[in-house]
Design goal:
Blueprint (H helix, E strand, L loop, with lengths): L1 H13 L5 H5 L4 H15 L1 E4 L2 E4 L2 E6 L1 H8 L2 H19 L1 E3 L4 E6 L9 E5 L21 E2 L2 E2 L19 E4 L2 E4 L4 E5 L6 E2 L10 E8 L2 E8 L6 E3 L2 E3 L1 E3 L5 E4 L2 E6 L4
Parallel strand pairs: 2-4, 3-5, 11-12
Antiparallel strand pairs: 1-2, 3-6, 7-8, 9-10, 9-19, 11-13, 13-14, 14-17, 15-16, 15-18, 18-19
Helix pairs in contact: 3-5
Length: 260
């Protein structure tokens, strides 16, 4: 990871004298790489035959100070972070949902040394599809320069038996609903990114709860422009049954309740 090591070395040389205290709290590239690996592990979803799908898009939100400091290395650093993520995926046998991409952005309300990782899945990504336009719903991953797991809104629930979890079939691809709340939308901060101009940035959300030993799944429209449909009927919120056909924009999906 050339640029990561070079940046680390350059910063280490600068940490001395009156500047030592200030630099100690700043985000280091190796911490970002570690947070991406943990986000990948956290979101790994079993697909069968020993394969596990992981997000392929990682948006790193930095404080103004950290972004200005790392911005000079942005392209090389992003490339090296992608290489580190790919190496981890290969070592763990993960299958990213599409080409891996890491984007650095300046976040709001972040102190120096604090950064967030927003994992998402998109089949087609590119720098022109930048997270600089990211909307609400950050997924906090780190604090004071050290990657830690806080309690994000979209924290996946325990995955002791992933095959029993509900999932969506979208165009023949399987998207397990491992979290208690899964957002669908065009924005790359959504849990399931749908590249469809008829889909709102945050279009709808699927909630999985428990009713005793059973899982209960429902879908709610997030005030989308074109609405959310279940079996051809526009809904605001509705409980889902196995085989229900969902339509958002021009995209259709089939809900599967998983093994009971």
């Amino acid at each position: 990871m050339g640029i990561i090591n070079r940046v680390e070395h350059g910063l280490a040389k600068a940490v001395h004298g009156a500047f030592a205290k200030a630099f100690k709290s700043e985000v280091q590239p190796v911490e970002i790489a570690s947070a991406i690996r943990r986000a990948m592990d956290d979101r790994a979803a079993l697909l069968g035959h020993g394969r596990a799908m992981v997000p392929n898009l990682y948006t790193i939100e930095l404080s103004e100070t950290d972004y200005e400091r790392l911005g000079d290395y942005e392209d090389d650093l992003s490339d090296d972070l992608v290489a580190a993520a790919q190496e981890h995926a290969d070592s763990q046998g993960y299958q990213p949902g599409g080409p891996l991409e890491v984007t650095l952005v300046q976040g709001e309300g972040l102190e120096t040394g604090v950064f967030r990782v927003r994992p998402a899945t998109a089949k087609q990504v590119g720098r022109e599809h930048s997270a600089r336009e990211a909307a609400d719903g950050p997924r906090p991953q780190t604090n004071n320069g050290t990657a830690i797991d806080e309690a994000p809104v979209h924290r996946p629930v325990p995955r002791s038996n992933p095959s029993a979890r509900p999932w969506l079939d979208i165009g023949g691809d399987r998207y397990p609903l491992l979290g208690s709340l899964t957002t669908l939308g065009r924005d790359e901060t959504a849990d399931i990114v749908i590249d469809d101009p008829g889909v709102s940035r945050r279009h709808s959300e699927i909630r999985v709860t428990t009713d005793g030993p059973h899982l209960v799944t429902s879908i709610r429209d997030l005030n989308s422009t074109n609405g959310t449909f279940v079996n051809g009927e526009r809904i605001s919120s509705q409980r889902l049954q196995d085989g229900d056909r969902l339509t958002i924009g021009r995209t259709s999906a089939t809900f599967r309740a998983g093994r009971r």
